[in-house]
Every structure is written in structure tokens, then in C-alpha cells.
Amino acid sequence: MFGIEKPIIQAGMIWASGWELASAVSNAGGLGLLGSGSMYPAELREQIRKCKRATSKPFGVNVPLLYPDIDQHIQIIIDESVPIVFTSAGNPKTYTGLLKSYGIKVVHVVSSSKFALKAQDAGCDAVVAEGFEAGGHNGREETTSFVLIPAVCEKVQIPVIAAGGIASGRQMLAAMVLGASGVQIGSRFVASNEASCHPHFKQAVINSQEGDTQLSLKKLTPVRLLKNAFFEQVQEAEQKGADAAMLQTLLGRGRAKKGMFEGDLSEGELEIGQVSALLNDIKPAAEIVKEVWNEYNALVEAISK
Ligand SMILES: Cc1cc2nc3c(=O)[nH]c(=O)nc-3n(C[C@H](O)[C@H](O)[C@H](O)COP(=O)(O)O)c2cc1C
Description:
By secondary structure, this protein is an alpha/beta fold. It is 43% helix and 15% strand. An 8-stranded parallel beta sheet has the order 1-9-8-6-5-4-3-2. It has a 3-stranded antiparallel beta sheet with strand order 7-11-10, covered by helices on one side. Helix 4 (93-101) links the parallel strand 4 and strand 5. The structure holds flavin mononucleotide. Flavin mononucleotide is lined by residues 11-14, 16, 35, 37, 62, 64, 88, 109, 130, 133-136, 163-166, 184-187, 190, 260, 271-273, 275. Residues 11-14, 16, 35, 37, 62, 64, 88, 109, 130, 133-136, 163-166, 184-187, 190, 260, 271-273, 275 line the site of flavin mononucleotide (FMN).
């Protein structure tokens, strides 16, 4: 469907997945995605052009549909002939038809089989089933990958890409056994040389242990965060009964940039998945793709014997 060699997709991630990471993954035979959610329109255009110069392989753009400049982003993607778009956080009906009329493959990220069916009805070519373990914004259903992947695979006829808690070939194999046709990997690529996030954030990710991430801001937009001072402030506000408006005030503007891009580990928002507990090193993205793929294939071979 995407014209790639390995069904390994590097997730679109705000403040982490620019052209360096996306092109490195695509050059390694996977699919790199630019995370447009933290880019102004002019920057997105620039990033797409840089990515095109850095790779002749297919790459895509992740588009959170709630983004304020969404119409401009969609137009830039069409103008620049980007072949693949992964949409998230919004209604897949809004742009899928338009994008597909330009021959663009459209994949929508879902957190339940109900939303997967909606994406299929909207004409999406595939869905990403993103489990509760995942870093970043998360569904309200809190369904883990182990349950979500087979549930979605049972409901839809289009291919299912598994996401949430996958960082190794072993985990990829589990997802494929559950019915997935490929995997989308986020947190593992945060801890890569090419990720554009701050080195302090990368270091915090590889230092983290089991239990160090938790879903936060549930009354606003649930997001899995690394626990820090900001996370504790939200917890305290929630315990005192803060409503969505109060949480929005506490969140303010630019928290994610402050944490992940500027490296403020205390006051910033640090989005990462549970799987960060299993990560111990920062390495080139191509090496990550190769390791996941080699381990996956070695296990497939061992099992088939
Ligand atoms: C730092 C970070 C930023 C993210 N930003 C986005 C985003 O902008 N759009 C989106 O659809 N998903 C976003 N996600 C979710 C990923 O696309 C992906 O589905 C998720 O990371 C998969 O789970 P994993 O972290 O366990 O690999 C983000 C995840 C992380 C860790």
C-alpha cells in the first residue's frame, strides 16, 4: 500500500519527528512521518521539501485534525504531492475524500473498534489501532493494545496497523500475531539521534522506569505523560475537582514545546509511552528499524521451524 520494504512506521510526533527522523526511517526501508501538529504552515512546507531532498523513498505527514491551521496544512500536503497522510484526533470524514481524490493514501488513528468502523466508512485505506500504553494523546476507552488490536481486526476489512507499546521485534511479532499488518512506533524513535526533541527529554525517556508514565488531563484531552512537577500540579488540581476550563488554564500554551523541545523537565509537558521503561539507549533511527526488523524475522523463522 505504501511502497515500503518493511511494515515499520515511525509515528508522527509533535516536537520530535521532523525531516531528519522521517527521512532516516524511510531511507532504512520503513515509513517516516512528519509530525505536523507542532508546525506552522510555512514550516510544514519547508520540512516536506527538506524530507524530499533527504530521501527518494515514500514518506508521509501526520495531521492531528483538531489543529487550528488544518485547512492550510491539508492544502500544502496536496500542493507538495505528499503520497501518504496519517490523520488523528478528529473526524476522519472531514478530509479523507478530498485527500483521496488526489491519490493520497489516508490512514486514521483510532482507539476503539467503533472509531475504526467510522474510519473505514469514511474511506480510509487503513487504520492505526493505538492502545492505552501509547505515548501522547490517548483514547478515553483505555483499551490496551493486547485487546484493541484483535478487536479492531475483527471489525474492519481494511488493514490494521498496531501502535502502543511496541519498541522491539518481539513486540512487533505479538502485534502481527494479533492480526496487525504493520506497526507504528513512537516512543522508541523519541530516543533516536535524529529525533528533533531536546537531549534532556531523550535522556529522561531512557532513564524512566515502569510506572513513571500515567494518563493525565483526562477531563481535557487525555495524554500519557512522564511524571514531573507539572504532572503533579495537574494531579493536585484534579483531586481538588478542577474542571476542563481550570485544567486548560493550568496547561496554558506551549507546555509541550517547553518540555519536549526546550528540555524543561520540570514545568514542561513530557509525552511518552509506557514502553519508555524498556528503553536504555539513544541510537540512529536506521539502527532501530534494522534491529526491530531483524529480531522480528529471526523470531518468525524460529517459530516456523
Ligand atoms: C512525543 C510524542 C508525540 C506524539 N505526537 C503525536 C501527534 O502529533 N499526532 C499523533 O497522531 N500522535 C502522536 N503521538 C502518538 C504516536 O503517533 C504513536 O501512536 C504512539 O507513540 C505509539 O505508541 P508508543 O509510544 O508506545 O510507540 C505522539 C507520541 C509521542 C511519544
